[in-house]
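As a warm-up, study this chain.
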Amino acid sequence: MKKVFGRPKNLKDAVFHYCPGCGHSIVHRLIAEIIDELNIRGKVIGVPPAGCAVLAYNYFDIDMGEAPHGRGAAVATGLKRSLPDRIVFTYQGDGDIAAIGTAETIHAANRGENITVVFINNGVYGMTGGQMAPTTIIGQISTTTPGGRNKDRDGVPIDLSEMLAITNGTVYIERTAVDSPKNIIRTKKAITKAFRVQMAGLGFSLVEVLSPCPTNLKMSPVQANEWIGSKMTTHFPLKVIKDTVGKL
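Now compare it with the structure written out below.
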């Protein structure tokens, strides 16, 4: 019988610790498939964050270098500069990259560091209890905004990808989602292109992935995916934000 589906070689035979319906497991799978298809297993280095994906090294069967909270871009910069022949990517949540790691990320992008960033945006601090994050949308309920985020009190959600797009060093930035099969396919294509940008030595690339967090949204997995499509994308529309490289 012909085998049509299987576990990627670069994904360990380990059970994910993520909650049911969490988007991290989907994106992990996509990245592992991409590493297989690009045949870069011996050259790729992942940089996981503090946050729900802190244990990503338990799942990817590749070299990994853990970063302190928010410092993914700084660690990736050091790895890439010392090992320029490696393909280095960070994997960061919104609380990690768009709060404590804002400075490192903006300056690495502005310098045009030849690294790839996978930015998981689920709109909350997932690991620490569902508090309001920089990307929590207006009206969204969290443990620190039980009445919903109020723009007058809490400000508006930060659009980090749009901010990074205006820096001179960024060459490719796209926002995708994993709330539907169509968007999962689009996400895989975007991350693949981001890796190809780095392999071609063109500069800083980032893919922002809108991802469900059913536990902290207090929703079922189905409801959380519907919320991504109906609510979150109104604040963070899915699109190519910057592309100076064209087809790769």
